[in-house]
Write a structure and sequence with these properties.
The chain has three helices and no strands. It is mainly alpha-helical. The longest helix has 62 residues.
Length: 118
């Protein structure tokens, strides 16, 4: 079976036909376009977002200052701890050079015995 090709008879375009086509085109565009009220709502939303971002920036700045302060305090704490550690090492070294009281008394008695025996 052969497909039958239908031939359309071209109808003359009238002004009314052009007006209908144009009207349909504009109707399609209007349905996709935002209205002034919708744009006003979008502007309002953007304005609120800007305010929120501004508040977030302020909070971030405050947090940044706090972190900086904590870092400085940490440096000071580390410096003081290092100083304490140096003093502790010095104390341990000086303790190594000292004699316990009982050991000292034993040495004194030995010296006394040696001096008597002379």
């Amino acid at each position: 079976m052969k497909k039958e090709t239908k031939t359309k008879v071209k109808k003359a375009m009238t002004i009314e036909d052009l007006a209908m086509i144009t009207q349909k085109g504009f109707a399609g565009i209007e349905s996709r376009m935002a209205t002034k009220d919708e744009l006003a709502l979008v502007k309002q939303d953007v304005s609120l977002m800007k305010e929120e971002i501004s508040l977030i920036k302020e909070d971030f700045s405050s947090i940044k200052q706090r972190v900086s302060s904590i870092e400085e305090e940490q440096k000071e704490t580390n410096r003081r701890l290092a100083s304490i550690e140096k003093k502790q090492i010095g104390t341990v070294l000086s303790l190594d050079e000292t004699v316990h009281r009982s050991e000292f008394e034993v040495v004194v008695r030995r010296v006394e015995v040696l001096e008597k025996s002379k």
